[in-house]
Write a structure and sequence with these properties.
Strand order of the largest sheet: 5-4-3-6-7
Number of helices: 15
Distance between the termini: 50 Å
Radius of gyration: 28 Å
Shape: flat
Number of strands: 13
Strand content: 5-15%
């Protein structure tokens, strides 16, 4: 369908656009077959780079759309190169128009196709039949994820195999039998996937037999280790010779490529903002302070905890009267320390904008965990497990926690723990696409009247 869209748009352009735009590509009144051939080759090369991944079921809709965009961009970059090298032509107008028309059509098609597939699976078609071997807590949690958390991906759990005594499984499922009875059951049934939570050391013979059966009958087998009690992290299996080990932490933004990409985005966006809109905002805030007789410095500077626990000074437009509690006490809804104009700055989030200076000089990133006062870092690090993990990324002007409701005053320890959990999730699941999502959701959140926690 993607290739069909490309060819359809190209054909329409050949019929609708004046031939003077690309005379070297025409054969009579029709587009030369060589152009279609080059477009097909470019498309084939693009899906060779990024892959169609039609079998995947654990893909977010946003990632589906992002792949459609990247694939289309790559197709037309390769198409441009091929036309230039092979046909010695440079029909820039045609390619730009074709790209501008094809991209939205392909994105809409991918979105509609994804929605149709989800609907089909909710109607119990295109289903993957699953068996879970094991009845421990992690097996029960897995069942919940497959049926509820991943329901639109089309999983149907046929049942559990494991001990029945003292086990409480969901009412919607059943224990088919014990582990021994699995080997008789599998002779007459063929699930698509088997998830096994048995400890290999304790059930070595059974596990080896399960592996052999799955290999012989082309059944996908997944081992589900019990990591309860461990931090929620991406764990990777590594080896030293023949010895396997598990690496507990592997943050995606730790790679040199990820760091360079994130830094380039930060510098470009913050530099553009500081050179264009920021001077007018500074003038507006200065005039606002002057008109409202808000005496004091324009900027508020405070020590915050940053990357790897190092301190830095954060810059904000001053929104409060100068006071001795600024380094310890969070702002509250009706905080008497706020000035009338400062209250407006906080509600509109304009007071946060000088932090683009911190981003440009490298102390902060646009997206990341919000930096806390040093006093709060010392206090919460002693009260909340894994609190300091949030400092494995540069602090941000906005972050995953903020767009999920964890913004503003934290009145209880549970609220701060929830914020920390969101920050750690961001660090473990970072991607450039996630940053883009957070950025646009933040813009929507700060629209007038939307954010009740901005004070």
């Amino acid at each position: 369908m993607d290739l069909g869209i490309h060819i359809f748009v190209l054909t329409c352009l050949a019929r609708l656009m004046p031939s003077s735009y690309f005379p070297e590509l025409l054969k009579g009144n029709n587009m030369s077959l060589s152009v279609y051939a080059l477009l097909t080759i470019a498309y084939t090369m693009s899906i060779g780079v990024f892959g169609l991944r039609l079998h995947e079921r654990r893909v977010k809709l946003l990632l589906v759309l992002w792949r459609a965009i990247v694939q289309t961009v790559t197709t037309y970059l390769m198409f441009t190169v091929l036309i230039t090298l092979v046909l010695k032509a440079s029909p820039r107008t045609m390619i730009v128009i074709q790209f501008g028309v094809s991209l939205p059509l392909i994105v809409v098609f991918h979105y509609c196709a994804n929605m149709i597939v989800r609907r089909i699976r909710r109607l119990r078609h295109n289903i993957r039949n699953v068996v879970i071997i094991g009845t421990d807590d992690v097996s029960i949690d897995l069942y919940g994820e497959l049926i509820q958390g991943q329901a639109f991906r089309g999983y149907q759990v046929m049942g559990f195999f494991g001990p029945k005594e003292g086990v409480e499984i969901p009412e919607s499922s059943k224990i088919i039998g014990d582990i021994t009875s699995f080997f008789e059951w599998i002779k007459w049934n063929r699930p698509d996937e088997i998830y096994c939570s048995l400890p290999p050391a304790e059930y070595e013979e059974d596990v080896n037999h399960i592996i052999h059966i799955c290999n012989e009958r082309f059944i996908e087998l997944f081992f589900v280790p019990n990591f309860k009690g461990y931090p929620k992290r991406h764990m990777l299996v590594r080896s030293i010779g023949d010895v396997k080990y598990i690496k507990l932490r592997e943050e995606p933004m730790n790679s040199p490529t990820a760091k360079l990409t994130k830094r380039m985005v930060d510098v470009c966006v913050s530099g553009l903002f500081l050179c264009t809109l920021y001077p007018f905002i500074v003038l507006f805030v200065w005039l606002g302070n002057l008109i409202t007789s808000n005496k004091g410095p324009l900027y508020f500077r405070q020590a915050r905890t940053g990357y790897n626990g190092k301190s830095f000074y954060i810059y904000k437009f001053r929104s409060m009267k100068e006071n001795k509690e600024a380094d310890k006490l969070q702002a509250t809804k009706d905080d008497p320390r706020k000035t009338p104009f400062g209250d407006f700055l906080r509600r509109s989030s304009i007071d946060e904008l000088p932090q683009f200076i911190n981003v440009f000089i490298g102390n902060m990133s646009i997206i990341g965990p919000r930096p806390h006062m040093e006093y709060h870092t010392d206090m919460y690090s002693a009260l909340i497990s894994n609190y300091m993990v949030r400092h494995l990324a540069k602090p941000g002007i906005t972050g995953w926690a903020q767009i999920n409701g964890c913004r503003g005053e934290t009145k209880t320890l549970e609220e701060m723990a929830d914020r920390v959990e969101h920050d750690i999730w961001y660090i473990e699941n970072w991607s450039l696409l996630l940053d883009v999502e957070i950025f646009f959701k933040t813009i929507w959140q700060v629209m007038p009247g939307r954010d009740k926690q901005a004070y």
